[in-house]
Each structure stands twice: as C-alpha cells, then as structure tokens.
Design brief:
Number of helices of chain A: 12
CATH class of the largest domain in chain A: Alpha Beta
CATH superfamily of the largest domain in chain A: ATPase, nucleotide binding domain
Structural class of chain A: alpha/beta
Largest sheet of chain A: 5 strands, mixed
Low-confidence stretches of chain A: 1-12
Order of helices and strands of chain A: HHHEEEEEHEEEEHEHEEEHHHHEHEH
Helix content of chain A: 40-55%
Oligomer: homodimer
Largest interface: A-B, 62 and 62 residues
Strand order of the largest sheet of chain A: 5-4-3-6-10
Number of strands of chain A: 15
Shape of chain A: globular
Strand content of chain A: 15-25%
C-alpha cells in the first residue's frame, strides 16, 4: 500500500518543523497500515533510528492517535517490545453520500474499521437541495452521536455527490440526475465540523486505491449510478482537472453524429451506456432498483436486456479505447452499478478494446467494493487527512 | 514559473542531508529563473534566512554552478550586494531530435541560452536505426566540442524520437513513421554521457511548460509531424502513463466504424487529421516539406486544401472533446506542424469543441515554439535535472 505523506507546497522551504510533521505522518501511516508494530519495527519500516522514532511515537501517544498494547513479542522473535496500534478511541472520519435513490452516512476509525452507519432509501431526484441536506444532517448527527458514544472524535465530514464539484469548493456546479445547479453544500448542510464535498466517482476511485487488496497506483475507475462517471488515479493521486471536472467519461463522443445529449453534444457515451439508454433499449420501465432488475433479467436470459447490455459494453469499449490511449493506465476498474452488470457488459467491452489495440497492461477488472466505494472513500478521505497531518487533527 | 524541486521518494525518511539538497535546488532554481539576484533577494524569494542562504550559495559557487557578478545595487534600493547569476561556464544540457526528415542537436546552458546547434536535413523514413544514430552521434560530438570550447561541461544528452518510448528505458517500442521497433537507443548511440530518450510530444510539452511566457500548469499539448501525438501536463508534471505510452491522441476513435488504421483500430484520429490523410484529401503528393506546401496552398485559397484542413480540424475537435471531458485541462496547446496550420484548422476544431460543450477554461492556444519545442524541451530537461539536484551534477 502506498503511504502518501503531507508535503510542503512548491516553493516553501524545508524546515525542522515541517520535517517533524512529515515524519510523524510516516510513523502513523506505518502503524495504521501494518500495525500492531513494535517501535523497532516502525523504525525499520520507515528508515529512521529507533531513538528518533521513540520521540515521534511518544508525541503521537500524547495526542491520542497511537496506543500501546503492552509488552508483546511480535512474531516471537527478538526482544519483547510494547506493540503500538492506532487508537480505537481517537479521531474518526465521517463519510456521507447523496445518491439519486438514497442517503447514507458512516464513521470510520483510524484503523479503517466502520464503527457506525446509517442509510435511508429516498428518491432525491428533482428534490430541492435544502430538504435533502437537512435530512442528511440528521443522519450525520445520528452516526456522530453513536461514534462519540464509543469514544471517537469526529474529525471531519466528506460528502459524495453524483455531480461536478468545483475544485477546492463545496459547490456542486451541476448534478443533472438530482437537478442541482450551483448548490453550495456548506451553506445548506447544518453540521459543525470541517467539510469536504466531491464527486462520487472520485471517492469511489480513492476507496479502490486505499482499500482494494492489490490496487495499482495508476488506474481509470469507471462507475455509474444514473450517469457514467470516471476518475483517474495517477501515481496514487487523484487527477482532478483544472476546475475539478476531470473524468467526464459519460460525455466522450462515441459516434459524433449520434443522438443529441442533454449536455449539448451528440453521440456521447451516456446515450449508449447510461442507465436510461440501457433501460430503454432493454424495454424496461424506469422504477426503483433498476440495476437489480436489469441484472435479474440478464441472468434469466432475457434477449432484449442482454442485447442492450452488449450495446452498452461496446460503447464503453469505444470510449475507453480513447481514454486508455490518452492515459495508459495500468488497469480499468469497473465500479458502482457497472460492477453488478459486468458479466453482460464485459465481453463486448473487452472485444472493442482488443480489436482497437488499446488494452491496458492489467486489463479490465471489476471492483470488489461496487456501490459501497463512494461512501467508504469519503469517510477514509477524512481518516487519511489525519494520517497525513497528525498534528493538524489534535 | 513553477519551480519543481527534487523530492524524496515515498517512504524514504526526511534527513538533514536530503533537506540540504532540496534547499540547494531551491536556491539554484531561484537564481536561474529570476537572476541576477542578491543573496538577500534569494533569501526573500525562497523563505530561508540570509545566513542559511549564504551557506548554500557558497557551496553552489564552489561547485561552479553559481557565480558572483561583483558588488551591485539591484534595483537601486537597499544595501549594495554582490549579485548572483548561474554560471555561463557550468554544466550544459544537450538535446537531440530524430525527425522523419531531419536530425538536430543543441546545447543549452544553465541560464537557458542555446550556445551551440547543428541540424541536418535527411530522410530517415525506413532507414535502419544504427546508421541514423551514428549520424546523430557525429552531430552530438560536433555540438559538444563547440560547447566545451566555450567552457561548458555537457551534463547529459536527451533524445526526442517520434514514437513510443518504454518508461524509464532507452527503448523505442514503436515509431511507425521511422519503421523502428524495440530499438534500444542506448546500445546504438555511440556517445559517452548520461542519456535519456523520450517521445517528441513529451519534450514539446515540457518546452511549453518551461519556456512559454504564460504556460498554465495544466494543459494538453497536441503536436504532429507525420503522426499525431499529445502530452498531458498536470500540476506542472508530465503524465507519462504506466508504460510511458500516455498521449496517443492519434489513435482515439473519432468514428468507430471509420477507415481501418495500421494500429489495428478503425476511424482513429490519424485517419482524418494525420499528415497522410490530409495530403490525400488535399490532392497533394507526399514529398519534402509537405507542411509548408499545405500552408502555402491554404494561404493561396486552394479549395481542396482548405476543405482537407477543415475536415482535419473537425476530427481534432471531436477527439479533443473526449480528451477535455476526461482531463479538464486549463488549455489545449497546438504545437509542431499543427501550429503552422492553425489558421485553417482552428475554426472547425473550435466549432466542434464549442457545440460539444467541452471547451477548456483557457481555450485552444497555438504554441509559439512550434517545431522547435521537442529539441529545446530535450536540452532543457537535462538542465532541469541539474537545477533539481545540483550536487548530483558535480
């Protein structure tokens, strides 16, 4: 697992203070990823002396981020040392998700364990942002209270939305399937803690990077709820784009003279592989839990549904050929609803990629996180913020 | 201008030694970019104390990288201080370019000035790599000798090639317009200095980043000689892709059922906007200096040539719509041959981008470096290597 650490900005000088902060982060990351670990094992892991590590460890214990489990003999070899673990009563990251059909919130501790969770099925399409976000805030308070009852301190909240979020802001510029435009989530969400807001595909990709067993450091993560989004991870970092709008795979032209798209273009990928297009091609009425319905019909051998998913897979393959040619990712990961429909999408998708010779090194893989990715990615992004800058959190 | 500095790899600890190396780099970058500067101005520029900067400056002077110009009063304000400049007799970067129709080499000093240059018109298409690279080596020796006669020390050679180069190797995996396959340039190029090899579009983009007056830190650089290449700069860094193959814009599908492409795909951008496709559409015979011929005919109002360039511009616009949707760059920069043909390509290109609603924030701009980009980018990459790690070079 990669362990990105807090780095000074370009142009800021290196100082003793900055160096100490970065080394505290390295210690905390090492214990979170590999713990429990003895002080000696931490020292070996990050390449600092035992003495330097002990000073850093003491500081992290005082800050309530690490705890000592008492004398142990890790692995049964060498001198007994007190094993260190991240605190189960320290900071927690809260993640929230605004879906078209649901709201969800969870709390994750420093070890990555989900400690509390709440979800509500509710149709948010066309609902005004205010009531949706007030309902979300109630779930946040519920989860927050339960986390505090277990001794955790919520360190911040990250909210995943199915739309474009302007970079470094809390503003949803456009979420077509919610019908939100220029919605300032910070102004409408009555919670009192540090807040970040990002696109659900971005958080889904980060979850894949941080939580999947063998995630590559470079991949293109494609996900779908109603629309089709993508996120690019390069060298273990999300590529956000200048305005925060990178990853709009759904509006890559597949057939330039194809059907008009609400975005203003023609023949965009969503016109062939978006949920509405697939439902229409399969002759399925829009309704609740549409993805399950498509999966059931395809599994039962329904010819129209299978044909619709083959067409969607081929269109995905054409759009991904362009993306793979441009980005040369190690893998393409299918997440969200696409993961559940993968058995019927993949053959046509991979056939297009192969005949167009743009197959990524590790091929196309299906996410094990599927639709849980965005919520987990959001909560973990807060946890990673603590690991990256331990002193900023206390 | 951004000043990227040498950074420790993920997971390596910060040390006093590493910190000193990075601060030496900051001082040298500041003087190279903004000099001549007094020690006090350097200190202010990079945010370290005057005393710390003086120690670093003394070390860079001893290493022959900086020189004192004698007592001056920079800007006429404050105490007189001895102005510092990068050495005009220090390390030099050598850049070389293997084109389809030419070979070129140049030497650039730490201040960015081209101090020697050699070029030869020669048709390299279908020629074996050995003779081409021996001829290139003779030009390298010529330029190197002239640079040494001016007191410069060549610090390394970077070679730009019109093909895919496997990341962190010297191997040209595929250069269709030279007909090179799996060519190890290091084994065939008889020169005795540190060598890097990269795609010409990558070096062209780096030249744009480092040398253009107001280059954004995020852009998509599109260039063409015979084929169409692109390079992506994100946060001031080149996005290379897992295998080093990122930027294959020429093989993004424009019309998925279009003409077969030698790459194995169908309807790739090169089938509409590659040089051969444009020459054919314009009714122009392939021959030497084809781009000038196209530009002349278009300027003279030749209808077939103008129609061919409009078609190429529209195809570029469709492929770039996908790229802009995926990457959200601040700008698209047209370089290489495309820069010279921009007056006739741009209207159709921008019309497609606009109607497909994927226009980048700063629009489409034409490179001022045009076909000089790759050679300059190669030479400057060696110079940047010295600025990024001054002690590695002495």
């Amino acid at each position: 697992m990669t362990a990105p650490v807090h780095r000074p900005r370009e142009g800021t000088p290196d100082t003793q203070h900055g160096m100490r902060r970065r080394n505290l982060s390295r210690v905390l990351h090492a214990v979170a990823a590999e713990g429990p670990l003895s002080r000696a094992a931490v020292a070996q892991h990050i390449g600092l002396t035992r003495a330097a590590v002990s000073t850093l460890v003491d500081e992290l214990i005082r800050a309530g981020l690490l705890e000592e489990l008492g004398p142990q003999r890790p692995g049964g070899v060498g001198r007994p040392g007190s094993a260190l673990a991240v605190s189960g009563r320290g900071p927690a990251g809260l993640g929230a998700e605004v879906g078209v059909d649901h709201l969800a919130v969870c709390a994750v501790d420093l070890s990555g364990t989900v400690r509390a969770r709440a979800e509500r099925r509710v149709s948010n399409r066309g609902r005004a942002p205010g009531p949706v976000l007030r309902e979300l805030a109630a779930l946040v308070r519920d989860v927050s209270t339960r986390a505090e009852a277990e001794g955790l301190r919520p360190a911040g909240l990250a909210v995943a939305v199915p739309g474009l979020v302007a970079r470094d802001t809390h503003t949803v510029v456009r979420a077509p399937n919610l019908d939100w435009h220029d919605t300032d989530v910070a102004a409408l969400l009555p919670v009192d803690m540090p807040l970040t807001v990002d696109n659900e595909a971005n958080f889904g990709a980060l979850a894949e990077l941080w939580l999947a067993a063998e995630a590559p450091a470079d991949f293109l993560h494609v996900s779908a709820e109603i629309g089709i989004g993508a996120a690019l991870v390069v060298d273990g970092q999300l590529l956000r784009g200048t305005r925060g709008f990178a990853g709009e795979l759904g509006h890559v032209p597949v057939r330039p003279e194809g059907p008009a798209c609400p975005c203003g273009g023609r023949g965009c990928l969503e016109q062939y592989a978006g949920e509405e297009a697939v439902l229409r091609a399969a002759g399925v009425e829009p309704g609740p839990d549409r993805v399950s319905l498509l999966a059931e019909r395809a599994a039962a051998g329904d010819a129209a549904t299978r044909r619709a998913l083959r067409g969607a897979g081929a269109a995905l393959g054409i759009a991904l050929t362009g993306a793979v040619n441009l980005l040369d990712p190690r893998a393409v990961v299918l997440g969200g609803a696409l993961a559940r429909l993968a058995p019927w999408l993949l053959p046509a998708l991979e056939r297009e990629l192969t005949r167009r010779t743009a197959t990524p090194a590790d091929g196309v893989v299906v996410s094990g996180l599927a639709s849980h990715g965005p919520l987990l990615g959001a909560a973990h992004s807060v946890v990673r913020g603590v690991l990256d800058d331990p002193l900023g959190a206390v």
